[in-house]
Amino acid sequence: MVYHFGILTSSIHMAWIQAIGGRLNSDYQYSATVVYNNFAWFLLTEEQRRLIEQTAQNILDVRSRYPQSTLANLYDELTMPKDLRDAYKKTTALLRPLTALKIFWTTSLKSSRN
Predict the structure, then answer these.
(1) Domain count of the fold of the chain
(2) Percent over 70 (pLDDT), the chain
(3) How far are the Cα atoms of 13, 16, 32, 46, 64 from residue 109, in angstroms, in the given order?
């Protein structure tokens, strides 16, 4: 299950949600049939899967260092702890070369910066 956490909380999956999922006000709407079922899951070797599990567990370990923080505080763009941001970057760095969605990924990042 930690593997799934790593994938579903990655920047790559977030770009997918932003492109495919709906919105209600400023909140993303996550649909199992539209967003989750149509996400291009990765074909991984056991070693790649193990590495993603390790980086995902690291995210959980870092989050546990902040027991007094709410998820809203931990994930706020302005207040996210640097070690948590770095933990997510490691997972994304592992996933980026594996994705079949490189064009989508690049396009989403460019549009999110504007």
Answers:
(1) 1
(2) 86
(3) 12, 11, 23, 28, 29
